[in-house]
Design goal:
By secondary structure, the protein is of the alpha/beta class. It contains 18 helices and six strands. InterPro entries: UCP010256 (IPR011195), Uncharacterised_CoxE (IPR008912), vWFA_dom_sf (IPR036465).
Length: about 475
């Protein structure tokens, strides 16, 4: 297949370096968004350009996604970047940000709008009626062209010194597509009436078409913004971080499910690494009798030595977790990891604290829901002694006094918290003694390293006693697990 011109309508505007340079810029943007793309994948992406029809934009979208992505969760970020680098049209943009009109582009979407847009309410009513018709017909291409017109007519904000701006919310406010649901249901159901499976199917169809229209409006707003400000600048604000890159302390409800799926495999990965380390560890003590017996066959020279089997013990784990409000999101996911690790460690004991400490292992029985366990900690655990503000010094002292044998030479100690003491005593001597008695000790801190020691943070002082690791998101948590 002969490759189309770089300025083909499906390819959109192409970088000065030609199609190859344009693809290289797209791959770099995907990589900067947090999606790992290796050299071999970039080569495969270049190969895709030679086997798909570049005039078929969706073929190109799916073909590049097949070689660049590893997980479904990466697709939303990829789609945003694809729409920026391979926009729907490559026609030049005028000073007002509106692409030059194409009389054939608006077939079936003629609104007969006057030059000055006329009365704004009358314009909105006519466009709203046209939107209802297109949603009933379900023509994706016509709906996309309508979205372009709607953004131009209704989404334009007053011009500023920085250039023309467009906003999707202005379009949605003017058209109010969600209020068309009843009208669309009536049109789809016809005389069959409401109720039953037919209505459920019709409602799902309406939801999908409304979502497609919103997506088309958002894509058109991003395209026009990219024409004004550049793709790179728009990409930084338009692409949401991947779930594994979202800070635990700032995770929204939409990120929680994906974060849970990202944390769950970490325990299995840790177990595999520990098992491999035990298998590859040094053999046990020399078995002198077997070695001498084997040397009789070589004239008394111990060419081959024999060792007693090495006793393998599953490590013990003690988790000391700050569950105060400032680190609630972080403790949620680290306690998920703690629960999953119970099957791989001979003894996992979990302790929670705010300004006092209590053992919460009983809340994490096999099969227990982590969210429910954390809720029970808030209601039933004795973690507040005074005012409910973090007091690391008192919490460490309570832990050492009530459970003096919890940490021993076979124990790995894991502390989870931001190290903010509210200007109270940090309890460094107690922590030093716990670290000395433990087999290994680590501290996971959900705050950026640059903030350690600022304000009431004693993280820099704790870091002199225990190995402190920055752990703000699932990616850093996975890195810690693989190096533990």
């Amino acid at each position: 297949m002969s490759a189309p011109s770089p300025a083909g309508p499906a390819a959109g505007p192409v970088a000065p370096g030609g199609l190859a340079g344009h693809l290289d810029g797209f791959v770099r943007a995907v990589r900067e968004a947090g999606i790992p793309v290796g050299i071999s994948q970039a080569v495969d992406a270049a190969e895709i350009l030679t086997v798909v029809d570049l005039l078929e934009r969706e073929q190109l979208r799916h073909g590049l996604a097949a070689v660049l992505l590893q997980r479904a969760s990466q697709r939303p970020a990829y789609d945003v970047l694809f729409d920026l680098w391979w926009p729907l049209s490559d026609r030049p943009v005028t000073s007002g940000g509106d692409p030059e009109a194409d009389p054939e582009e608006d077939d079936g979407v003629s609104l007969d709008l006057p030059e000055g847009h006329g009365d704004q309410r009358d314009l909105s009513d006519r466009m709203r009626a046209e939107l209802a018709r297109l949603l009933l017909e379900g023509d994706d291409e016509a709906l996309r062209r309508f979205a372009r017109r709607a953004v131009d007519q209704l989404g334009r904000a007053p011009a500023s010194p920085s250039g023309q701006s467009y906003f999707g919310y202005r379009v949605m406010r003017a058209l109010s597509p969600d209020t068309l649901v009843a009208q669309l249901l009536a049109g789809l159901l016809g005389d069959s009436g409401r109720g039953g499976l037919a209505e459920q199917v019709a409602r799902q169809t309406v939801r999908e078409r409304l979502a497609a229209f919103r997506a088309a409006v958002d894509a058109e707003v991003r395209r026009r913004s990219a024409a004004e400000r550049g793709r790179e600048r728009v990409a930084k604000s338009a692409v949401r971080p991947l779930a594994e890159q979202v800070d635990f302390l700032r995770a929204q409800q939409a990120d929680l499910a994906e974060l849970r799926r990202a944390v769950a495999p970490l325990a299995r990965r840790l177990a595999v690494r520990l098992s491999a380390r035990r298998r590859m560890g040094r053999e046990g003590r020399l078995d002198f009798r077997r070695t001498v017996r084997a040397s009789l066959g070589t004239g008394g020279v111990p060419v081959v030595t024999h060792h007693r089997p090495r006793k393998v013990h599953k490590p013990e784990l003690v988790v000391l977790c700050d569950v105060s409000g400032s680190v609630a999101g972080f403790s949620h996911f680290t306690l998920m990891l703690t629960q999953a690790l119970r099957e791989h460690f001979s003894g996992v004991r979990a302790f929670a604290f705010v300004d006092a400490t209590d053992e919460v292992t009983r809340f994490f029985r096999p099969g227990a829901d982590v969210a429910g366990a954390i809720a029970r900690i808030g209601r039933e655990a004795d973690v507040v002694a005074f005012d409910g503000h973090s007091d690391y010094g008192n919490a460490l002292e309570v832990f050492a006094d009530r459970w003096p044998t919890a940490v021993g030479p076979k124990t790995s100690l894991l502390v989870l918290g931001d190290g903010r003491t509210n200007y109270r005593q940090p309890g460094l001597p107690v922590l030093t003694d716990l670290v000395r008695r433990a087999r290994s000790a680590h501290w996971l801190n959900p705050e950026p390293r640059r903030l350690w020691g600022s304000g009431d943070s004693a993280a820099d002082r704790y870091g002199e006693v225990v190995d402190m690791v920055e752990c703000r998101n699932a990616t850093q948590l996975a890195d810690f697990v693989t190096t533990l």
